[in-house]
From TrEMBL:
Highest taxon in the source lineage: Bacteria
Region annotation Disordered: where it falls in the sequence: 1-98
Matches recorded under InterPro entries: DUF3017
Alphabetical UniProt keywords: Membrane, Transmembrane, Transmembrane helix
Pfam families listed in its UniProt record: DUF3017
Source organism per UniProt: Streptomyces ficellus
Entry's transmembrane regions: 102-123, 129-148, 160-179
Name recorded for this polypeptide: DUF3017 domain-containing protein
Length: 200
């Protein structure tokens, strides 16, 4: 019995090899029915010898010379911008759109009125008064920007930057309007000397 078992066990591998060789010859090199090329697959479904996804980050890092799998460059297209400080609505959300933007409309209305006065020249000193009104409109914008927490579209940058820009421009326009020749309403000697030196 022991001899027969040994003979059977020894004959089985040989028979298998012969059967495998015969099968290969009989099928004529046919591919499997599932369309695969006969390569062996791994447990996770990938083909043996093919690069896996786990090796991709290290490959990209080696190619770029930087650690990590993704690029740290900023996007080429900016999709949105941050709202400036105090750029919220100046009125409740259920109010009409003009009411929510009343600070900006106030400044624009005063500026338009000043330009209308300058252009119409309906009374004496109209250009001077219209120019002063434009400066006052900018000073009003600076005051509104300082007093209110939310001013809508009147807010462009930070509160300090807006106040400084509106205030400097408004003050300069008012001073120039007061010092306009002839018969200036305000005389500042060092400013007159600076203007004469610049005009030469």
């Amino acid at each position: 019995m022991g001899v027969r078992a040994n003979d059977d066990s020894a004959a089985t591998p040989a028979g298998t090899d012969e059967g495998g060789a015969g099968t290969g010859a009989g099928e004529g090199g046919r591919r499997p029915a599932d369309g695969s090329d006969g390569s062996h697959g791994t447990a996770d479904g990938t083909t043996a010898g093919a690069p896996t996804d786990a090796a991709a980050p290290s490959t990209r890092a080696a190619a770029t010379g930087r650690p990590g799998s993704g690029s740290r460059r900023p996007p080429t297209v900016t999709r949105d911008t941050a709202r400036p400080e105090g750029g919220g609505r100046a009125a409740p959300g259920d109010a009409p759109a003009p009411a929510r933007q009343w600070p900006l409309l106030t400044v624009l209305g005063l500026t338009a009125l000043g330009l209308l006065i300058v252009g119409s020249d309906l009374f004496p000193h109209a250009p001077r008064i219209g120019t002063m009104l434009i400066g006052v409109a900018l000073l009003t914008g600076a005051a509104i920007r300082r007093a209110l927490p939310s001013v809508g579209m009147l807010a462009v940058r930070s509160r300090f930057t807006d106040m400084a820009a509106y205030g400097v421009l408004g003050t300069g326009i008012v001073l120039l309007a007061l010092m306009t020749q002839p018969s200036p309403w305000l005389e500042i000697p060092f400013l007159e000397d600076a203007v004469r030196f610049a005009v030469r």
